């Protein structure tokens, strides 16, 4: 089983924790308290396109409030993926997301870091299209310019949430496979799979 | 006499409470007893909350019915409530357009500013429409359908405290009744009695003393002067003050001890009552009249010095008369005496503390305003702050100096030593407590100072601290340290629960994180050095 460290970043109250909880527990709390520090959750998924592959996400859900900004570097350091969340009804939150993207690009040397830009609260705009402030096209354009994955989701309805993690998982898996292949090719050694098959998925006991 | 007084007071109070009936604090209708008022409050001013006027009306009527049926033999009780209730209004619909919409995670209670969640609950004030949590929208006001106040035809609707207090005719303290006059009357009559008693004692005292002086003058030169004088004096005393009958007294009225062969009866020469002369309880004492005359020098007494030597006659006074005659005089006399050095020093210490206390609030206000406008502080404010700070520091220096002076004084008695110690403790406390805001100033002043003067000299002088950190850096590191410590605690808890739930790989990840946080904390504490938390 492959393990990946994933970190959530973004302005306060854009719905980072809600997205994580939708993904991990498939639940939604209308009145969630704001996060203190950083919360840790983990979830194992099976990649849909490669059926035999399970990957485990170790998710660090950081607090968006300015006070906890100093904690973020500790969690995005050595991360394999970053989810940068903004609120599609709040224009400021996209600017904040962009500043996070810049910080990640500057501070993290790892070229393999998968960054995904996520616009949350899609359900609000489905109710009332006028509430949308950030256009999908604009965000999409910015994401492709920076080489980010992009998805609009709703933590409330769950739309698009699992898709993000599937795409991230796939991308990470492909990266890993490529690097392993490259390593085995250059060294020309026998590739011994040291990792045992997962006993930690939802079907086995003691999970 | 005291007994008479107290019984009169009780009688007065009874008459007061009898004449005043109870008033309803809301509509000021009067009631005969608490039961009636209670029923009236329940029925007419029913404060039970309800979402809809219709529903509320029916419950209110139900309570009325049950009450009147439970006590049908008391017509007085139901009479006011019947008058107050109206037939339930059909189709009462309150205007809702002005209600503030609930935005999840955003809406806050207007009073406590908490974000409204399911746990806190959320209610619109029916009157102003603003959102409140369940515990801050517990008031009720009568509103009409346009959500305006209508005390007569309106329905009881939930509202916030603000709207409740803004309601016309609202009284903050409920029913208020001024009984000062009655109390003053009782008190003044009581103190007038005391004054009369005192006057009587004084006039007796004057007559006795002057009489004694005259007797001395008249018989001082005769052969049997001592015998003659004492008999004349005792006659004089009895003629001025009616002495109580010896047979009536069995025990001393002051100490309640029984008279016996060992405990003799004595008459107080001023009030005439029979008291003992026990040395321990000091119910009565023989005092030289010269001493007494000295103590009451304001009274029109004749000159006690006969020829050259003073009259040495003594006079027996009970402790009660002594107190009422001389206590106040002694107090007034001591007021004019110069204070001992210790107390004088303390007085100046106290004055200094007064100065500090009067300056401190202004100082704190200025400080707060400077803090709020941290980015571009007002020049004038900063000047003011510096001035106030200087003044305070001077005052503190004086305070400290006086304390030291007090501590150097030699004490003669145990009481003085005790006072000295107390003053020392007090001043240490005072300085510690009041100096606190001053301590936090220098960084504000200096950081403002340094941000304005970018010249390198000022930077080196004011911005650098002991271990080469700027003040802003120290602040920043401190908050970081705080956040890290919080996070350490959180992650430790998460690791514990993960271990308990046998999620060992999660626990190991979390433990790694703990180590990381700990390393960062150590790093920061190192950097802060003495500036860190202890």
From TrEMBL, chain A:
Domain of life: Eukaryota
Keywords: Cell membrane, GTP-binding, Lipoprotein, Membrane, Nucleotide-binding, Prenylation, Protein transport, Transport
Subcellular location: Cell membrane
A Pfam family assignment: Ras
GO cellular component: endosome; plasma membrane
Annotated GO biological process: protein transport; vesicle organization; vesicle-mediated transport
UniProt-listed Gene3D superfamilies: P-loop containing nucleotide triphosphate hydrolases
Start and end residues of each stretch annotated as Disordered: 184-207
Membrane disposition: Lipid-anchor
Annotated signal peptide: none
PROSITE patterns named among the record's database cross-references: RAB, RAS, RHO
GO molecular function terms noted in the UniProt entry: GTP binding; GTPase activity
CDD domains: Rab5_related
PANTHER family in UniProt: PTHR47978
Family: Belongs to the small GTPase superfamily. Rab family.
Descriptive protein name: LAFE_0H13234g1_1
Organism phylogeny: Eukaryota, Fungi, Dikarya, Ascomycota, Saccharomycotina
From TrEMBL, chain B:
Domain of life according to the entry: Eukaryota
Coiled-coil regions listed: 500-527
InterPro entries (alphabetical): Rab4/Rab5_effector, Rbsn_Rab-bd, Rbsn_Rab-bd_sf, Znf_C2H2_type, Znf_FYVE, Znf_FYVE-rel, Znf_FYVE_PHD, Znf_RING/FYVE/PHD
GO cellular component, one term: bounding membrane of organelle
Compositional bias per record (Polar residues), positions renumbered to this chain: 59-82
UniProt GO MF annotations: phosphatidylinositol-3-phosphate binding; zinc ion binding
UniProt cross-references to CDD domains, sorted A to Z: FYVE1_Vac1p_like (cd15761), FYVE2_Vac1p_like (cd15737)
Pfam families according to UniProt: FYVE, Rbsn
Positions of region (Disordered): 50-91
Keywords: Coiled coil, Metal-binding, Zinc, Zinc-finger
Domain FYVE-type: from-to ranges: 246-326
Protein name, per record: LAFE_0D07118g1_1
């Amino acid at each position: 089983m492959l393990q990946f460290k994933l970190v959530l970043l973004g302005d306060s109250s854009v719905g980072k924790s809600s997205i994580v909880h939708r993904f991990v527990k498939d639940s939604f709390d209308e009145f969630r308290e704001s996060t203190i520090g950083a919360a840790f959750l983990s979830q194992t998924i099976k990649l849909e396109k490669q059926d035999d592959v399970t990957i485990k996400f170790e998710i660090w859900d950081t607090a968006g409030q300015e006070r906890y900004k100093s904690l973020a570097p500790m969690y995005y350091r050595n991360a394999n993926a970053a989810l940068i969340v903004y609120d599609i009804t709040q224009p400021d939150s996209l600017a904040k997301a962009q500043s996070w993207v810049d910080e990640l690009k500057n501070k993290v040397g790892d070229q393999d870091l998968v960054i995904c830009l996520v616009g949350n609260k899609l359900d609000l705009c489905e109710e009332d299209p006028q509430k949308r402030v950030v256009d999908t096209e604009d965000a999409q354009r910015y994401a492709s310019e920076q080489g980010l994955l992009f998805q609009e989701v709703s933590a409330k309805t769950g739309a698009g949430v699992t898709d993000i993690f599937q795409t991230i998982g796939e991308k990470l898996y492909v990266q890993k496979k490529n690097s392993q292949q490259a390593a085995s090719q250059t060294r020309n050694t026998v590739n011994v799979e040291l990792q045992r098959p997962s006993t930690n998925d939802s079907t086995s006991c003691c999970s | 006499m005291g007994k008479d007084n107290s019984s009169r007071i009780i009688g007065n109070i009874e008459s007061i409470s009898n004449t005043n009936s109870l008033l309803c604090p809301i509509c000021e209708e009067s009631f005969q007893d608490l039961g009636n008022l209670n029923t009236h409050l329940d029925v007419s001013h029913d404060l039970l909350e309800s979402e809809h006027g219709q529903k509320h009306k029916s419950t209110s009527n139900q309570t009325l019915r049950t009450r009147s049926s439970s006590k049908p033999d008391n017509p007085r009780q139901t009479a006011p409530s019947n008058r107050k209730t109206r037939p339930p209004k059909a189709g009462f619909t309150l205007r809702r357009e002005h209600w503030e919409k609930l935005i999840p995670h955003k809406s806050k209670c207007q009073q406590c500013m908490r974000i409204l969640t399911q746990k806190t609950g959320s209610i619109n004030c029916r009157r102003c429409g603003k959102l409140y949590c369940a515990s801050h929208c517990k008031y009720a006001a009568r509103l009409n359908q346009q959500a305006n106040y209508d005390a007569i035809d309106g329905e009881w609707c939930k509202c916030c405290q603000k709207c409740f207090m803004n309601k016309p005719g609202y009284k903050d303290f409920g029913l208020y009744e001024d009984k000062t006059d009655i109390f003053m009357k009782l008190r003044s009559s009581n103190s007038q009695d005391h004054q009369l008693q005192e006057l009587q004692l004084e006039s007796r005292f004057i007559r006795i003393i002057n009489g004694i002086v005259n007797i001395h003058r008249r018989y001082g030169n005769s052969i049997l002067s001592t015998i003659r004088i004492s008999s004349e004096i005792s006659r004089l005393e009895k003629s001025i003050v009616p002495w109580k009958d010896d047979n009536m007294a069995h025990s001393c009225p002051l100490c309640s001890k029984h008279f016996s062969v060992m405990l003799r009866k004595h008459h107080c020469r001023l009030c005439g009552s029979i008291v003992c002369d026990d040395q321990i309880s000091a119910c009565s004492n023989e005092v030289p009249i010269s001493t007494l005359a000295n103590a009451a020098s304001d009274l029109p007494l004749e000159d006690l010095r006969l020829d050259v030597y003073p009259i040495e006659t003594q006079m027996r006074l009970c402790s009660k008369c002594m107190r009422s005659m001389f206590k106040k005089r002694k107090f007034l006399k001591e007021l004019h005496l110069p204070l001992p050095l210790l107390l004088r020093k303390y007085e100046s210490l106290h004055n200094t503390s007064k100065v500090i206390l009067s300056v401190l609030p202004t100082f704190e206000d200025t400080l707060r305003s400077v803090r709020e406008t941290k980015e571009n502080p007002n020049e004038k404010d900063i000047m003011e702050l510096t001035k106030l700070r200087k003044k305070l520091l001077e005052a503190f220096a004086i305070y400290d100096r006086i304390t030291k002076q007090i501590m150097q004084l030699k004490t003669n008695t145990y009481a003085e030593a005790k006072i000295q110690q107390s003053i020392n403790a007090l001043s240490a406390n005072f300085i510690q407590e009041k100096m606190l805001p001053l301590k936090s100033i220098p960084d504000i002043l200096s950081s403002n100072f340094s941000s304005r003067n970018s010249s390198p000299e000022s930077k080196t002088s004011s911005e650098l601290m002991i271990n080469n950190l700027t003040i802003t850096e120290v602040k920043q590191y401190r908050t970081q340290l705080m956040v890290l410590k919080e996070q350490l605690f959180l992650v430790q808890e998460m690791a514990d629960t993960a271990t308990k739930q046998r999620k060992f790989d999660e626990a190991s990840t979390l433990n790694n994180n703990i180590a990381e946080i700990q390393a960062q904390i150590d790093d920061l504490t190192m950097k802060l050095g003495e500036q860190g938390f202890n």
